[in-house]
Amino acid sequence: MKNHNARPPIDSEQPFISHLVELRDRLLRAVIVVLLVFFSLAYFANPIYAYLAGPLMRHLPQGSQMIAIEVASPFLAPFKLTLIVSVFIAMPFILYQAWAFIAPGLYRHERRLILPLLVASTLLFFAGIAFAYYVVFPLIFGFLTATMPKGVAMMTDISHYLDFVLTLFFAFGVSFEVPIATILLVWSGIVSYRGLASKRPYVIVAVFTVGAILTPPDVVSQVLLAIPMWLLFEAGLLCSRFVVRRADEERGDASAYALAKSEREVIWPKKDNRHSE
User: Fold this and answer.
1) Tens-digit pLDDT string for the chain (277 aa)
2) Contact 45/149 with Cβ under 8 angstroms?
3) How many angstroms separate the first and last alpha carbons of the chain?
4) Can you give the pTM of this predicted structure?
5) Are the CB atoms for 45 and 82 separated by under 8 Å?
6) CB 3.0–4.6 Å: which of 145, 170, 197, 213 could bond 59 by disulfide?
């Protein structure tokens, strides 16, 4: 009977350099795909930037426009954004290369858990970016433009705007990974489900603190980041119960199989090869 929980066999004689070569090859494939996507989108660099600037431009007064205070920024800022968009588009292929590299060294129950978490973390990261663009940006820019002093014209530099937007994208994308972090903490045994649930008041304070640090100094964006983080923490806490329960069942099945195998060998010991000849 085959032990389905056993780690896949790894050739112990395979030199370490071969793993480095495989890692290099997979990194090169990922870079090539990103470059191919980038060159395909390079022609649309300016429309892509115009789409990103849409939430701000819709709240500026009629006839207002963005500015470029550096000589090369009208050229570099759209292409920088296009390169980042290319990485996002190529992310499924990049994650596949990472998964193909680490999967052979994982247990079967680890592969069953890590692959769904890898896919879910990617979708959650993109969901955080979409939430920031379609929900948070209109509220933030509406608040900022409404609080401008009289006699002040808001003319945002395109490079500074890009850095500001990318910072918020990263903040919301990472904050939406809270369920994955919660599941991994419980699954790895660092903290129990009940122990993490008992710390809920501290978690609420922590998410509002993180929201204040990662977002601009206004209450609207802080709340819009903190509340989804709290709800995602609750979702991760709920999912961790089922993930850990299933992992315990798989470990129990593996232990039962090992115990049954040892008892079977005691009752029916293997025949000596010398007697069988």
Assistant:
1) 555 555 555 554 456 788 788 888 999 999 999 999 999 999 999 999 999 999 888 888 777 788 888 888 888 999 999 999 999 999 889 888 888 888 877 777 777 777 788 888 889 889 989 998 998 888 888 877 877 787 777 788 899 999 989 988 888 888 888 888 888 877 777 777 777 778 888 888 888 887 777 666 667 777 878 888 888 888 888 877 776 666 555 554 444 444 444 544 444 444 444 444 4
2) no
3) 25
4) 0.73
5) yes
6) 145
